Amino acid sequence: MCGRYAQTRVDDELERDLLVDRILGEPHAPSWNVAPTQDVPVVLERVEDDGPQRQLRSARWGLVPSWAKDASIGSRMINARSETVLDKPAFRKAAAKRRALVPMDGYYEWQAHERGPKTPYFLHGAEPLAAAGLYELWRDHSKADDDPARWLWSVTIITRPATDTLGHIHDRCPVLLPRPLWDDWLDPSITAADEVGAMLVHVPEPHLTPREVGRAVGNVANDGPELVEPVRPED
């Protein structure tokens, strides 16, 4: 799964790097310890009056389906498996119509051992990453029709089996999209399940570097660049 990650680029950098047309909402603060249920920056395309527009906005990490009775279900929807995302009722409509990019510097995984505590690693590439995500809008009926907070935007990160050399750390990893696949993934005109499935199947495996880090990242209250520093100097 993907349960923690780092995202330290400010909005101007995200706008440049992910080819954003418009920034919406409050500025996003850098974080070295992004956790579920927090508001995170996402990139998506919406069809506006003048055509498709690539937007940077905030969404709560943990997808809340439109049919949910309350928003608490989102804490159990932080990830969606690529193998079943087109079939699960919570995700299939979003997979067809509401796809997003979730920018990150890298993500954390904990390697289990037969004895002793798990070891945290920060997995990163040569450049910042963009994970495949799905977003959803949920109407909070406890709020008035004119309340701007009546709509909750939420997001989930799609994961896949980790079949490369990183599989020894954790058996799953985020679906990380290279730049040539961004346009199709965000394209709101691509809605057929077979086309979306084909995109997921053909995403190349990432080439990431695992870095052992300190256990302080396990506490969501901790945040700062020291969290991604290696426990021991890298070769």
UniProtKB/TrEMBL annotation:
InterPro entries: SRAP (IPR003738), SRAP-like (IPR036590). Keywords: Covalent protein-DNA linkage, DNA damage, DNA-binding, Hydrolase, Lyase, Protease. The keyword tRNA-binding does not apply. Pfam families: SRAP (PF02586). GO terms for biological process: protein-DNA covalent cross-linking repair; proteolysis. GO terms for molecular function: lyase activity; peptidase activity; single-stranded DNA binding. The keyword Lyase applies. Its EC number is 3.4.-.-. It is an enzyme of class 3 (hydrolase). Belongs to the SOS response-associated peptidase family. PANTHER family: ABASIC SITE PROCESSING PROTEIN HMCES, DC12-RELATED. This is Abasic site processing protein. It comes from Cellulomonas hominis.
